[in-house]
Amino acid sequence: MEFFTLHDFMTYTKGVTYLVMGGILVFMPLYWLYLTDRDDD
Amino acid sequence: MSQETPIARKQYLTPFNVITGIILVIGFVLTVLRFTKGIGAVTNLDNNNPWGLWIGFDLLCGVALAAGGYMTSSACYIFGLKKYHSAVRPAILTAFLGYALVVFALHYDVGRPWRLPYPIFWSQGTSSLLFEVGLCVFLYLTVLFIEWTPAAFEWLGYKKIRGIVVRLTLMLTIFGVVLSTLHQSSLGALFMIAPSKLHPLWYSGYLHVYFFISSMFAGLSMVIFESTLAHRWLHHKMDDTHLAESDGVVLGFGRAASFIMMGYVGIKIIGLAVDNNWHYLATGWGMWFLVELVGFVLLPAILFSMGAREKNLTFIRVAAVWAVLGIVLNRLNVSLIAFNWHLPAADRYVPSIMEVGTTIFIVTLGVVVYRFIALKMPILHEHPDYKQAH
C-alpha cells in the first residue's frame, strides 16, 4: 500500500483498525462462552 | 549439649539456607561496591543506555508482577468474589514485598538514598510522568503496607488497632486500584518519550494501555505461580479453608488471565493496524515480536483456557509460569532489547555480571522475607482468634 497524503494513510489504517476491532468484538464474547460453557458440568 | 549441636547445625545448614546465604553475602559485597565506587564500577550503563537491568527487570517487572495485590483484593472486596478471600493475604504480601523491593532496587540505580523523599516533598516535577510514577508508588506502597498490617497485628496480638485497619479495607482496596491504574500505565507511557529509540513494533500511542492490561494478567499469573510455590514449600502452614479454596482460585484466576490475555493480543493487533506496522513483521525484529506475542501471550492464554475448561490445574500452573516469563520478556523488550535497536552492536547494552548479581540478590531478599513472614504470621492460614472475622 503506497500512501500519498496523510488522509490516504488515515483512511487505510483506520479502515483496517475498524475491521480488526469488529473481529475482536465478535471474538471475545465467543471466547468467554468457550471458557465458561462447561461450568454446569 | 554435645549431642544437640550437630542436630541444630543440620537444621540450619539446609540447601535453601546455604544458597540464599551465599547470594546475600555476594549481594552485600556488591552493595558496598555500588555505593562506594559509584554506578560505573558495577554496571555497563552509559549515555546511550542510562537505564539497564535494574530498571528493566527490578522495576518494570517488579511492578507488573506485583499487580496480583490489586487484582486479588479488588476481586474479593469490590466485586464480592469471596471465594478468593484466602488468596488475598498472600497476594497482598507478594505485592507489598514486590513494591518494597522496587523502591529498594531503585536506590542502586539512583544512588543517594537520603534524597528519596525529595521528589515528593521538596521538588515536585508535576509535568513529569516519572513524578506521577514516584508519587503513585510511594502512596501505593503505603497502602499495601497498611493492607498487610492486620496479619502482623494478629501475630503480635494487637486486636484493637487490627480492628481499625480491617474497617479501612474497602477504602484501601479502591485507593489501591486507582493508584495501580495510574502508575502501571504510566510506566509504559514513560517510553512514549522515545519514539526514535524504541522499535516501532513495541512503540505505540497505546503503550500505557498495553502496560496496564498486561499487568492484570501478570498479577493473576503471579498469584497462581506464588500459590504453586507456597503449596510446594509452605504446605504445612495452610489451613483447611486455604486448601479448600485453593483449586477454585487457580481455576478462576486462570480463566480470567486467559480472557484478558486474548484481549491483550487483540489490542496489540489494533496497535499494528493503527500505525500500519505490518511490514515490520517480516523482519528479524518482527519474528522476535511474534515470539513474544504468540509464544509468550497467545500460547499460554490457550493453555490457560484448556486448563480452565478441563479443570486441569497443572495446565494452569504451567501457563502461569509461561505468562510470567512472557511479561518479563515484554518489559525487557521495551526497556532494553528493542530500545536503542538502531545502535551498532558495539554500543548495545548488555548487563554486567555485577548487575545480574545485584538483581538476583534483591529477588532472593524478597523470597527470604516472604518465607519469614509466611512462616510467622497468619498469611496462608487464619489466626485462631479471628476465624470468620472477615
Written account of the structure:
The complex is a heterodimer of chains A (41) and B (390). The radius of gyration of chain A is 17 Å and the shape is rod-shaped. The N and C termini of chain A lie far apart (50 Å). Chain A has one helix and no strands. Chain A has 41 residues and is an all-alpha fold. The relative contact order of chain A is 0.09. Chain B has one domain: Formate dehydrogenase/DMSO reductase fold, CATH 1.20.1630.10. Chain B is an all-alpha fold and 390 residues long. The relative contact order of chain B is 0.15. Chain B contains 15 helices and no strands. Helices cover 73% and strands 0% of the residues of chain B. The radius of gyration of chain B is 22 Å and the shape is globular. Chain B has helices spanning 4-12, 15-37, 39-42, 53-65, 68-78, 88-110, 118-122, 129-156, 159-167, 169-189, 207-233, 240-275, 284-310, 313-337, 353-376. In chain B, α8 (129-156) packs antiparallel against α9 (159-167) and α13 runs antiparallel to α14 (313-337). The longest helix of chain B is centred in the middle third of the chain and has 36 residues, at 240-275.
Detail the topology: elements first, then pairings:
The complex is a heterodimer of chains A (41) and B (390).
Chain A: H1 6-36
Chain B: H1 4-12, H2 15-37, H3 39-42, H4 53-65, H5 68-78, H6 88-110, H7 118-122, H8 129-156, H9 159-167, H10 169-189, H11 207-233, H12 240-275, H13 284-310, H14 313-337, H15 353-376
